[in-house]
Amino acid sequence: MHMKKIYCILLVLLAALNSSAQKQSYDLATYVAPAGFTMQAGEKSLQYSLEDKAKGSYCLITLFKGLPSTGQSKPDFDAAWESLVKETLTISAEPVMQDSASENGWVAQSGYSTFESEGNKGIVILVTMSGFQKLVPVLILTNTDEYQPAISSFLESIDLAKPVAEKVNPGKPEKEVPVHPNTSPVKSGFAFTRTEFDDGWVSTVQEDWVEVRKGDVKILLHYPNPEIKPANTDVNVMCAAAWNVLVAPRYSNIQNYKLTPGMLDYERPYYAEANLTDNATGQQVFVALFRKGNTSWIEFVCPDRNTFIQQFGLDVSAIDYYADSNIWAKLVRMNNYNKFAVAATDFKGKWSDRFASNTYYTNIYTGMSAGMSTYTSSQSFEFGAGQSYKWHLVMANSYGGNMQYSQGKGAGKFTVLNNWQVRFSEMEGKPKTYDAYFTAIKGGRVLWMNDAQNPGSGIFTGFSKAD
Q1: CA–CA distance, 179 with 215 (Å, rounded to integer)
Q2: Smallest Cα–Cα separation from 159: which of 105, 79, 99, 84?
Q3: Does 2.40.128 match the CATH number of domain 344-465?
Q4: pLDDT digit string, tens, across residues 355-377
Q5: Quick check: pTM over 0.70?
Q6: First vs last Cα of the chain: how many Å apart?
Q7: Under the phi-then-psi rule, with left for phi > 0, alpha for psi from -120 to 50, and beta for the rest, what region is 329?
Q8: Is residue 252 a contact partner of residue 133, using CB atoms and an 8 Å limit?
Q9: Rounded to whole angstroms, how far apart are CA atoms 275 and 303?
Q10: What pLDDT digit, counting tens, does each position of 397-406 carry?
Q11: Superfamily of domain 3-162
C-alpha cells in the first residue's frame, strides 16, 4: 500500500470541483455519490460501501450530519477523533495530521492512522469541516489504495452550505449594521451601572460581563464562569477551555487562530486571537481573549488586527521567550475598568469577608520544618434602616500550638460623602472614612473599601446579591 499516494488527496479537501454527475444533498452537504458504492442511511449519517470479496479489499465512506462545533477546527477534529475513531477502533498511533484548508467560511482538518478491528487491519481517515458553529465529519476506512480515485472524487465534490441561522438581517446593507452598537446597562438594584472614565473609556454592567467601550473598540470583562474547566494549566488547554465557553457561542467562521508562545514571566499570560464573524451583526471582527495573574478573562473585540495592535501595542507574532513582561501591561490595566460608584441606597443587608493564610517556617541550618502559623479573619457589615450599621471584625492567629484572638466592633450611622467615599460614625471608638467602589459580578456586586487616611493599608471586600 502506498500511503503517500493515498493521502495526497487531503491537501485539496475543499476544491469543490464541478462535476457532470448528479449531485445529492444530505443535511448541510451536497456531493456526488461514489460510483458503484452501496448507500445505507442511518439516523445521523449516510454510509457508502464497496467490497471486493475475491481480493479481500473494502472501502467505507461515512458522511455525518452537522454537529455542534466548539468554534475551533482543531478541537473539533480532536473531539471527533475520540468519539468516532478511538472509541470504535484499535488505533496504533496518534493521527498524522495534514495541512488545514479553508473555503467559503469552512475550515477542514484531516488526519489518518492505521487501525485494527476484529483481526482486520487498515487505514482510517478522518476529515472534519468546521464553520458557522457546525462540524461536519467524514470518516473513511479502507485497506487498499485501489479506492483512491473514488475517495478523492467524493471529497472534492463536497460543498457545504451556510446554516440558515447564520443569516443576519438579510437584505440590509452591511453599512447599516454598526460593529459595536451602543449598549445599555442591564437593570440592577444598584444606583450606578455606568462609569465614564476621564480617558474616554465607558463601562456598563451587562448580564455576563462588564462592557468597556471607546470608539470602535469593545472589551468584555467576563465574570467568573464555572463552566470553564481546563484539564491543566497549559496555555493551549486553558485558552481552549475559556474560548469554547466565552467566545465560540457568539461567533463563527474562525480563521487565523493563534496562541502566545511560551515566555519567561513570573505570571503566565494566557492569550488567544482569531478573526471571526460576529453572529449578532454579521460583521467580520478581530477577537483576542486574555488572562494574566488575577485578572478576569478579558475579551478584546476590534474591527481588525491592526486596530488592536495600535490600541494596545501588542503583536503576538513578534513575541519570543525573552519578551519583556510589560508588553501585557495595557491589557492587564483594562481589568480596572470594572469599577462603579456607590450610593447610600446600595448599602443594605449583610456584607461579609473572610480571609485565611498559612506561613511555613524552615530551619536555615538544617532545612527541617520549624512549624507553621495560621492567620484567619472574618469581617462583616450589617446595614439597616435610617443608614444605620453594625460592624464586627474577628481575627485569630496560631503558632506552635498557641492561639490568639482579637476583635473589633462598631455601630452608628454611615454617610456617603460622594460617589466614591463612605464615612462611618464609629469604628473602634472613632469615625472613619473609606474610599469605596463596586466591581460587578453575575447577579451582584463586590464592595471594596480602603482607609482614606492610609491608602494601601488594607482593603475590605464584601459580597451581596442585587435586589
Answers
A1: 10
A2: 105
A3: yes
A4: 787 887 777 777 677 778 888 88
A5: no
A6: 70
A7: alpha
A8: yes
A9: 9
A10: 887 778 888 8
A11: Mog1/PsbP, alpha/beta/alpha sandwich (3.40.1000.10)
